[in-house]
Amino acid sequence: MSTISISSTSVGSGTDDLGWIQTGLPTPTTLLSTNIDAASRTATGPVASHSPITFEDTSAHGLEQFWDDWVGPVQEPPITTVPLPPQPYPLPVGPPPLYPDFYTIPPKDILPGYKFPSDFLFGWATAAQQWEGAVKADGKGPTIWDWASRFPGFIADNTTSDVGDLGYYLYKEDIARLAAVGGNVYSFTLFWTRIYPWALANTPLNQAGVDHYRDVIDYAWSQGVEPVVTLFHWDTPLAAQLAYGGFASERIVDDFVNYAETVFKAYNGSVHKWVTFNEPVMAAPVNSTLPPGLNSTVYPYTCSYNLVLAHAKTVHRFRELNIQGEIAFKSDNFLGVPWRSDNTTDQEATERHAQYQIGIFAEPIYNTGDWPELIKNDLSPEILPRFNQSQIDYIRGTADFFAIDGYRDGYVTAPPNGIDACRTNISDPNWPVCNVKEWTSSLTFLSFFDSTPFGWGIGDFADPKVPWLQNTWQFVRPFLADLVKRYPTKGGIYLSEFGFAEPYENEKQFIYQVTEDAGRTAYYMSYLGEVLKGIVDDGIPIKGTFAWSLVDNFEWNSGFSTRFGTQYVDYNSPTLARTFKRSILSMGQFWNAHRCDTDSGN
Ligand code: NOJ
């Protein structure tokens, strides 16, 4: 116990010494679906309090002790060197057509004559906690996920991300495969705790982490692939969580900016697109403990407040330091479509969804510098801290482009008891957003196009373990157009994540069943076609698409039981072998036929 000491003796539900870590440690809240919506934020909040912890020994020995005390043993990686992929990377012969071409058009023949703009970024995405593995290697510090995944039941299949895809060692293989199918961009995220194992600004830098990501960036460029770097994708450093409650404390702001500055200076010139935060609505729910003085209603909004300040300060430093390129954060979820288009209450309910889900961060950062009026009218300053005028001026305009993790769109309606009755009743299950969306009520009519019993689904349904996801291609263009209208930027808009969990993929017995991911392929072909039409026919400034995901990976609380990869990963093989699925090969064919530098007759 030499590295940490309790700075206060009052420990929530536990005892006053470290015994509570074993006996009274709060069980992290299970969050089964990652693409959670704003209405559920209070329901999936933290479950217990702990008192702040300070760190005294930040040496390598101290770090080892920190891991031992809080996380325990981690699974060793089966590979500890970086294999060099063959060049040129061999691509399999494309799969034969799945259906006759009078029913399904081959990818290269979709939308003949349509071309992507010359600077379009077409690629794939991963995130550190989900892909890298090697969680303890070369001086990395623990994250809240390294800690929380040890609790039985926290991860549906009781796995951890200790090894994951081992992207930490297999990044060259993965980037070479991305390049081989034609991709020109790789969006990945950094582990804050690889750079600063203890997270806090006055603690040691881990040079090995800085060097590692430098290799990833350089290797990507060597393959003709542009690296897009995200600073934070939910991997809150455990040290920051224990010291002051992570995003619940304003102390996170300067610690995050310190980390960001280090990264900016290290890779300036080698990265042209930067992202501060991935899906900030999620940053609070994925935290797992509740600092003293906050209840679970207030907590997500306190986190939102601190996160907006951290984003704004990071972007100001980025600009002051004259770092090259553009910077923004990634929004998520959808704006919504009124269930009954001519019904004003449904329209109001839909706008409430849009504001709580996307506007809450986008409105201050892109437009006004302040929270959306609609939300300020609902939430008192005791719940949602207010920005003062100088903060408002500081926050406004701190993004150069818009990025949306736009997996789907969906219908929204008013709650059965009406919006007003809900808005004023904090105990209402739909408070504060006060609407009903299709996937939260899968047994009600909103999952369907029409209200008849057993009506048609809103789109092809993904794996039943991912109930929020359908292939809603019909909304792609209006959704992106609306976002651009609401949050205009000079840098345009990126579909910074989109993807599909093929139904029952993890239950399939043979690899030839897995690689034939027809539902995912249909999703990507229809979304990419809509994106292309959005650019060419509608003039929407869509600048790039980053598919989720390059390979199967650790899907947060679902562990490895749900697969989003366009490539299969054999977790039982000692090399964590990757296999191309139909979807990635079809995407490559689609892109190669529609990129502006090819003359395919298209
Ligand atoms: C968006 C998140 O950014 C990513 O981490 C997650 O795996 C996908 N949604 C799929 O749920």
Structural notes for this entry:
The protein is α/β, with parallel strands linked by helices and 602 residues long. Helices cover 32% and strands 11% of the residues. It contains 18 helices and 17 strands. An eight-stranded parallel β-barrel has the order 3-4-5-6-7-9-14-15, surrounded by six helices. Strands 8-10-11 form a three-stranded mixed beta sheet. Strand 16 and strand 17 form a beta hairpin. Helix 9 runs parallel beside helix 10 and helix 15 packs across helix 17. It is globular, with a radius of gyration of 23 Å. The N terminus is likely disordered. It binds 1-deoxynojirimycin (NOJ). 1-deoxynojirimycin binds next to loops.
Which tags fit this structure?
single chain; 602 residues; alpha/beta; TIM Barrel; 8-stranded parallel β-barrel; 3-stranded mixed beta sheet; 32% helix; disordered N terminus; binds 1-deoxynojirimycin
Topology:
Elements: E1 4-6, H1 19-23, E2 53-55, H2 60-70, E3 121-125, H3 128-131, H4 144-148, H5 167-180, E4 185-189, H6 192-195, H7 207-222, E5 226-232, H8 238-244, H9 251-267, E6 273-278, H10 299-320, E7 326-332, E8 337-338, H11 344-368, H12 373-378, H13 389-395, E9 402-405, E10 411-413, H14 419-423, E11 436-437, E12 460-461, E13 470-471, H15 476-486, E14 493-497, H16 511-514, H17 518-536, E15 542-548, E16 567-569, E17 578-580, H18 582-594
Parallel strand pairs: 3-4, 3-15, 4-5, 5-6, 6-7, 7-9, 8-10, 9-14, 14-15
Antiparallel strand pairs: 1-2, 10-11, 12-13, 16-17
Helix pairs in contact: 5-7, 9-10, 15-17, 17-18
The structure holds 1-deoxynojirimycin.
Pfam families: Glyco_hydro_1
GO molecular function: beta-glucosidase activity
Family: Belongs to the glycosyl hydrolase 1 family.
